[in-house]
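HUMAN:
Could you generate one sequence with tokenized structure?
ASSISTANT:
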Amino acid sequence: MGKKSTTEEVKLEIPPDNLRCSRTDGRQWRCKRRAMENVKLCEAHYLQGKIRQNKEKVPESLKLQRNMKMKKRKKNDVVEIRSKKKKKKKNGDVQLELIRMVLQREVDKKK
């Protein structure tokens, strides 16, 4: 049949959650490598942790390669701002807006 997409191939390579390395970034990312026996981390993260525990710098040979997406962004230095800039309000404008909000709430209550 047709070719499998790259996301399907990646899903096949990732071990089940109970066998997967537990290293996360505190957000959504989680290491895709298989954890070692009797340890919750993969070999690379386990060795990095042992070295950091001694407050030594992790050698380049133990560091993991990151995705190319991040490197491309750094080279281009293009920052995408997704939020719209809000107009800065003066003190008088803020007070007027508060008064408008209070009056609007009172009108809504009377309805």
User: Anything to note?
Assistant: The mean pLDDT is 76. Residues 1-64 form one domain. The helical segments are 6-13, 43-53, 68-76, 91-110. Residues 91-110 form the longest helix (20 residues).
